[in-house]
TrEMBL record:
InterPro entries: Aldolase-II_Adducin_sf (IPR051017), Aldolase_II/adducin_N (IPR001303), Aldolase_II/adducin_N_sf (IPR036409). SUPFAM superfamilies: AraD/HMP-PK domain-like. Belongs to the aldolase class II family. It comes from Ideonella alba. It holds the Pfam family Aldolase_II. One of its GO terms (cellular component) is cytoskeleton. One of its GO terms (molecular function) is actin filament binding. This is Class II aldolase/adducin family protein. Residues 19-199 form the Class II aldolase/adducin N-terminal domain.
Length: 252
């Protein structure tokens, strides 16, 4: 693999976070989860300052690299130099979540067709498939208010989340929160797959219910978050290796 040295202006911890987040943007693009130049994954920078990394506004996810990620403070003000701005909608609710929830180190938002379709359903996510079952009791909803560019909506979005790691913005799309990037990614994977299966099965007839006991067992036994299986780190690392084989340039 081509070596991409760490620029001196970044600490080792920040550079590691930048590389991992840039990889995540490339993973999203590979999976078809990108949305032109829109949507966001934000990640807290390790260290004492409440600083966060987010994608440069104007770049496709396949153009995001470790060095061009933008560092912002809790209010969305750019910290240091950046050749690119950020999308104000990107930090409206991300900032509110990061500022309020101590374990919200990573926040993800997508507009994939299956997840948006489920967000447009009156009953929302149906806990009737293998993937949805692992999210039982972890999903909240927020009513649609329009494009999320108004700061005051951030507090309302946070209130709607009720501390749950998955928030479905009605008529809009999902927001996933995680204490690590890998855990947030694995939650988003579950949301995406649950919605794909629901949209495939729902038109075919009545959905087969899952018992409460089985749903609780699925949450308890989910390998995605089991420390014995890397708590999501192993599966994320596998996807990062895939991206390294395709285009390691995200490491620049």
């Amino acid at each position: 693999m081509t070596a991409f040295p760490r620029p001196e202006r970044f600490s080792e911890a920040e550079w590691a976070a930048r590389v991992k987040l840039a990889a995540c943007y490339r993973i999203f693009a590979h999976l078809g989860w990108a949305e032109l130049i829109y949507n966001h994954i934000s990640l807290r920078v390790p260290g004492p300052d409440p600083h966060f990394l987010i994608n440069p506004f104007g770049l496709h996810y396949t153009e995001v690299t470790a060095s061009n990620l933008v560092k912002v403070d809790i209010d969305g003000h750019i910290v240091g130099h950046s050749d690119w701005p950020i999308n104000p909608a990107g930090f409206t609710f991300h900032g509110a979540i990061h500022a309020t929830l101590p374990d919200a180190h990573c926040v993800m938002h997508v507009h994939t067709t299956p997840t948006m379709a489920v967000c447009c359903l009156q009953d929302g996510l149906s806990f009737t498939n293998f993937y949805a079952a692992q999210l039982y009791g972890q999903v909240a909803y927020h009513d649609f208010e329009g494009i999320t560019v108004h700061l005051e909506e951030g507090a309302r979005i946070l209130a709607s989340s009720q501390g749950k790691p998955v928030l479905l913005l009605r008529n809009h799309g999902p927001v996933v929160i995680g204490p690590t990037l890998a855990q947030a990614f694995n939650r988003m994977w579950l949301v995406q797959r649950a919605c794909e299966v629901q949209m495939a099965s729902q038109p075919m007839g009545a959905l087969q219910p899952i018992s409460e006991a089985a749903l609780q067992a699925c949450v308890r036994d989910s390998l995605n978050f089991n420390p014995n299986f890397g708590a999501g780190e192993d599966s994320f690392a596998a996807m990062q290796r895939l991206i390294d084989r395709i285009d390691p340039g995200y490491r620049a």
